[in-house]
Structures are given as structure tokens and as C-alpha cells.
Amino acid sequence: MTYTIIVTNSGVGPTSGAVNLTDTLPAGLTATAISGTGWTCTLGTLSCTRSDALAANVSYAAITVTVNVAANVPASVTNVATVSGGGELNTANDGASDPTTIGNGPDLIVTKTHSGNFTHGQIGAQYTIIVKNTGGTPTSGAVTVTDTLPAGLSATAIAGTGWICTLGTLSCTRSDALAANSSYAAITVTVNVAANSPASVTNTAVVSGGGELNSANDTANDLTTISSSLTDVSSLVRVTTTGFLFSRSSHLYTGAMTVTNTSAQPLSGPLQVVLTNLTAGVTLANATGSALGAPYITLPGVSTLNPGQSATVSLQFGNPANTLIDFTPVTFSGSF
User: Fold this and answer.
1) Neighbours of 195 (CB within 10 A)
2) Which residues, listed in sequence order, are joined to residue 146 by a DSSP beta bridge?
3) What domains, with CATH codes, occur in the chain?
4) Are 55 and 11 a contacting pair, CB within 8 Å?
5) Phi, psi (degrees; rounded to nearest 5) at 304
6) Which of these, 26, 43, 316, 317, has the minimum number of CB atoms within 10 Å of its CB?
7) pLDDT tens profile 282-327
8) Cis before residue 270, ω within 30 degrees of 0?
């Protein structure tokens, strides 16, 4: 913001000697520069001087005072300038007051949201960040958003229409003006959730720039609950087995297992059957004979099991020692 000060000789003869100009700013305004062609100005005292004669009814070159406006400045302030010297005799008209209305400039706020709970081991969870100008005038200059992820979350993408985003710094910027009471296009942050992430984490987004003066509302925190990805729902399902046969040539038991959702609510993945009580020396394999390494059977192609719906998975049990196989499928694990 700038003020313009002009000194005019309204007398009948030219000035003589030094002419001095002093500006007095009200509280809430801070001067950053003062200058004028032909004037010798000092920022610290907000004063300017010159000694060349000024003819009657003529004005010196204008003086410009540049100021910053504090966020808590009153709605109306008055700036006062005073001139002296030049050999004048009438000092009654040496002061000028400039009442100044302080408008509501741009004021950026940021909001950060997500949908539902995240789960341990989840891939592609998303946060949404929105920047809004709640001020009375459009923004000016670059606006920057920076996201800070908590431990347990790792970003895989960040993007938003009109934004220039950098994944490495989790930041986005743009310079087009944002009108008062308007919002930019949303920024989406995509994350993976570690299997050992805490049960609750907080993600933080910060906005800056745009010519705003109020930075007290530039931060948004989003508390996120991290749920277990596998919930024991054994009481909600029925597991049956059919047709396990022994093959002497391959030492494999082959057959199928059927899982039925006997609850009144749908179950969603990962859908896994957990087998227990496997005899020592028995190895678990999938339908192609590849070792699974753990007694977990994932239902292939099944992401949701609705009430009353069943799914079947082919199994093989390796028995190189040709011993009796004792297995009891007792638990169905999933999330719902």
C-alpha cells in the first residue's frame, strides 16, 4: 500500500532555503520505503528535504511512502504529513491528514478431510485438501500448500487441477488469483498405510502466500483412525470341505474348500481362510502347487462376500513324509 504526498507553494513568491517534509504513520502501518524525485529522504524518520526554490503556484515532485498493513489494524486509520521551511510565514496550512479505510484483504484457509477409517496395510488411501479465500479481495502472487504426513503413512501421489505439485516435498503451488469466497480445485494426496502404523494418526496441511495478512488460520489437522485389516469373524461364517483325495505320485492332497457368509452383513477383503492344526511336516500349497509359506488361503477374485454367498478355493496339501494329515479349518478372517 502506498501514500502520495505533494508539496505546493501557494504563495506569491518562490521559496528560499530548505523545505522539510515529515510523515507520521498511525499504529498498524509500517513504512518500508519513502522517496521522491529531487528529495533526499530518510526511511527511519520518514522525512524528506530539499533546498531548490519552488516557484509560486508550483508543486515539487510527489513523495511516495510505501507501507505494510498489520493483520490487526483498525478498520480506519489516519496518516498525517507536515511540511516546514522554505521561508514561509503562514504555518497554519502546513499539515495534511489522510483518513484511510482498511479493507478486508485476502485470507486463505485450508481444510483437510478423508473418508472412513484407513486400515493397516491399505494401498491407495486418500486425503482431500481444499484452499478457500475467506477474505474480501482476490489473492495475489503464489499460493503454496504443504502436506506433512505422520509416521506410518507414505505418499504415492499428490495432484490437483491447476496446481503444480511435487511428490518429494508433498507441496503444490499456483499463482492464479482466487476470488473472495471462492475455493481452488481440490488437492488429492494418495498414501499407503504401513502394517505397523499407530491406531490413530494426524495429517497436517498448511497454506501460505496469496498476499494474505492473517496466517492464524492457515493450518488444518486431520485425525485418522487406522483399523486392523483382518478382523476375526469366525462366528459369522461357515467353512466346509469336500473331496480331498490322496495322490501317491505327487504326495499331494487336492480338493476344495467352500466358505459361506452366514451373517446378515457383507464381508469385504482381504478375504482369507486361516487353517490350523496342520500336522508337522505337511506343507500348504496353492492350486498350482507353489508353496504359500503360511496357513492363509486368500479367496481368488473375491473382494466382497454378501450375506448367504459362498466362495470356493482349490487347495493342495503337500505330504512328502506320507504321514497322516490332520487339519481343521476353524477361522475365517476378513474386514467388514
Assistant:
1) 11
2) 171, 206
3) 2-101 (2.60.40), 108-227 (2.60.40.740), 232-335 (2.60.40)
4) no
5) -140, 135
6) 43
7) 555 544 444 444 455 555 666 677 777 877 766 655 555 555 544 4
8) yes
